[in-house]
Amino acid sequence: MQGTQRILTDIPRQRLFLIRMSQKIGVSRACERMGKHRSYYYYWAKRYQSKGTRGLIDASRRPKTMPRLSSGEKIKAVVKMRKRTHYGKERLHDELKDRGILIAVSTIGKILDRAGLLLKQRSYKTQKKHTRSYNLIYPGQRVQMDIKYVPAEKCPFGKRYYQYTVKDECTRMRYLAWHDSIWTQKAVQTLQEAEAFFGFKIDCVQTDNGIEFTFNYTAQLTAQHKEPKVHPLDAYCQAKNMRHKLIPPGEKEINGKVERSHRTDDEEFYRTLKDRLNLETLIRRGRRWMMFYNFRRRHSGIAKKVPGRFALERLLLYPHRVLTACSFLSNMC
C-alpha cells in the first residue's frame, strides 16, 4: 500500500485524503472542508473501491476509436520524409503533394507530435527594433553577407570552422564557403566566388560590423598617431564599383534573410551530419547542400519557388544584369 502511494502525485493524494476524511467526519463535512462537490467525492470513491489507489489517477482521454485517423501508409511517409529532410509541416505538405499524397498541414503537425519529432525552439523575448519586410526588384541589387560558426560537435576536437554566406535578397540564392579561420581576405575571396557563382552583377553588399567586414569598430580608431586603415573588403568594393553597406550595431534583423538561412542550415544540413568532419569533407558535403538549396529546394519567401529558377525568370526581365549566363544555366541543368 505504501509503495502504491509513492507513485501518486499531488492531485491523486488530495482525492485519497478526501476519501479518508469522509470516513471520519462524513461526506458533507469533508467536501465542505476540501472545497469539493459531493458528486466529485462519489465519482472518485467509486473508482477507489473498484481499482484501489491507481483508480485515483486521471485516465487517458484519448478516444478508443478514431475514424478520421490517417492511414498507416501516410503516417509512415510523413515520418520517413521528416527524418530524411527535417522539413517543417508546411514544406512536408508541399513535397508529399508532389508525390500524390494529400494530407492536411495540421494533420502532419499532429503526426510529428505523436512521433516525438517536433523540436522546441528557443523563445526570445527581446523586442525587435526592425520589423519592416521588403523584396528587391532585380538580382544583385543587394546581397547580405555574414559568418556562421559551424557547430562545435561537427568539428574535430580543438578546431573551429566558419561558414561564409552570401545571399541575394531578390532571388534568395546563396553562395557558401567554409574556412578554418576568420581573416579579412576570406571575405573578399568569398564575395569574388559568389559573383562568379551567381552569374550576375552585384551592386551592393550588406554586412554587420564585425572585424572581418570593417575596421570601423576597432581600437585603432583611438590611436591618433596612426593613419586610418582601409579594410580589404572596402577596397575591393570600391574597385568593383560596389556599395558596402553596414547595418546599425545591434540590429541584426536588417540582415534577417541571411540570418534566417543559417537556421535552415542547422535544421536541414548540420543536423544530418552524423560525425565530426575535416575541412575537406565538410566543403564537399556543403557544396552538395548549397546546390540543393539553390536549384531544388523551394523557398517560402518567393512563393515557394526554387531560387535558381526564380533567378532565371528575373534575369530574363533584366538581361543586362547577366555576367556569365553560360555558367548560371549550367547550374540549372
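(the above was protein one; protein two follows)
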Amino acid sequence: MARAAPTRKRPMRADRRLSQPEAEKVDAGSDLRVAAIAAEDWGVVSTHELRACGLDDQAISVRARNGRLHRQHQGVYAVGHPNVPLEGEFLAAVKACGPGALLSHYAAAAHWEIVEWDGRHPEVTVFGKGTRIHRGIRVHRTQLIDPRDRRHHKGIPVTSPPRTLVDLASVLDYRPLRRVVRQAQALQLVSLAHVAETVSRLGSRRGIRNLRRILATGPAPTRSGLEDVVLDLILSGGLSHPDVNVPIKLEGRRIVPDFRWPEQRLVVEADSRKWHDGELAKEDDAERQALLEAHGERVLRVTWEQAIARPTQTLARLKAAGAPTC
C-alpha cells in the first residue's frame, strides 16, 4: 500500500511570525513618558504630547483601540481609563483648544471654587479669530489676553479671579453675579481694588454695569446665600454697612462673626439650616455666642424665614438693638 506523501508545512511569512503587529508592541520608554505626563496633568494628554513621547499616529490609534487611550476631545486622550476627575475634564478642554488657551467663565469660577460645577460644557477662551468648533466645549474668542489675566491653578491654565468675574458679568444676571463676587472675596481670591483695575483695563463690555454697581457697594465677602440675603436687608433698610466676616480674637480664640458693628459691639449671625442644624453646630454656636456676650458683644440671630418672610420686623429688631443707620 502506497504511503501518503508527507504534508509539507508552508513557510510562515516573516511578517506573520511576529507575535503582534509592530505598532502594538509596548514601547516601554514611550509609554513611561506618556504615563509621567498623565500623572502630572490629571490623567490627560494631547496628540502633540503623545508624538513628543515617541508615538506615531499608528501607535496612538492602536492604543486607542486596545483601551490604553480614551478620547476626550479631538486630539486629547485620557490615559488608562476614561473616568478622569473634574480637573482632568477642564484640562482636556484647554488642551483641545491649543497653546495659549485658558479655562474661563463659569468653568474657571468652578475651578477657583467660587461656584459649584453644574456639568455644562466647559468654557475656554482662546486668542485670535479662528473659527474652529470643538464639540463639547464652549469656546470664547478674544483679541486681548493680558498677562495679568493668566494664571496656573492646580496645573491648569485659567483666567485670573478678577478676569473670571469680568467674564461672568457677561453671562450672569445681577443677583447671581453679586453672589459670586462676594464668594470670591470670602475666599480671599480678589480685592475690590483688583477687580476695579481689571474692569477699567478691559473697558466697556456686556454686563460691566452690573459689576460696577456691585463694586460700588463696598466689601461684602459673604459666605452663604443667607448671609447675602441678610446683608441686602441691612443695606436696603438704611443701616450702615457692617463688618462682614471680619475675624476678632477673644481669649486666644479666633471668632468670625457674620456681621458686626464694632462701635456698637453688635453682632448679627445668619442662622442657615445647612450650617447650624446639627447638634455639634448648635453647641459651637452657643459657645461662640457665650464668648461674645462675655466680652460685651450683643448677638442677634436671623433665620432665612425672618429675613425673607418678615423683613420689616427683622429690621425693626436690628434697629432696636442699636444697629446704626446711614
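Reviewer note on protein two: The chain has 14 helices and 14 strands.
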